[in-house]
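2024-03-11 09:14:02 DEBUG pipeline.ingest accepted 1 chain
2024-03-11 09:14:02 DEBUG pipeline.ingest length=113
2024-03-11 09:14:03 DEBUG pipeline.predict start
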Amino acid sequence: MAGITEWSAQELAQELKSGADDKLLLVDVREPHEWAAGRLPGSVHIPLGSLMQRVGEIPVNVTPVFICAVGGRSMAACRYFASQGRDAINLAGGVMGWSQIYGAPPRPEHEHS
């Protein structure tokens, strides 16, 4: 049975710092206007409403970390993934929780690679 793990912003930051980002894919399931206001660097945008159609965009060799505003929609995405037999991670507190610790994430057009 596939499992759902819940990570705090600190746990996610620690995993990314430790080099686990090659095994993880940050998937932002918020709406386009929320995404445009700022998102975590390196994340991909697949709104929750289109996740079922676009599930193939998430490679099987990575674990998705689903992100939304406060953690509700991302948990729904995790439940869907678990129902498909795949592990998933939910960012508890979402972008709001991340912002309280690390500051608001950058807007996409201001990101530097």
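2024-03-11 09:14:41 DEBUG pipeline.report The chain has a mean pLDDT of 91.
2024-03-11 09:14:41 DEBUG pipeline.predict end
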